[in-house]
Amino acid sequence: MKPPGGSDGSSTLIPNDEGKGFDRMRDPTYAGNARNGNSMSGARPDTPISGAWFSVQFQELMNAYPPLS
């Protein structure tokens, strides 16, 4: 299980010393492929590399409606 607030991956290539690239499914402009029915990902822009703290995603979880229990 992934801890809340941890990034799934970046939407663009971010220089880092961990060898992590970017994930096309995290790119909000990606138009999809046959495996997902050519659907837009709906991803947020400016996401950090995988495993990095992602404050915006954590805030979404904290402000969920209905509240998470």
TrEMBL record:
Gene3D superfamilies documented for this protein: 1, 4-beta cellobiohydrolase
Compositionally biased spans, kind Basic and acidic residues: 17-27
Highest taxon above the source species: Bacteria
Region (Disordered): 1-50
GO BP terms in the entry: cellulose catabolic process
Listed GO MF terms: hydrolase activity, hydrolyzing O-glycosyl compounds
Name listed for the protein in its UniProt record: Uncharacterized protein
Source organism (scientific name): Micromonospora kangleipakensis
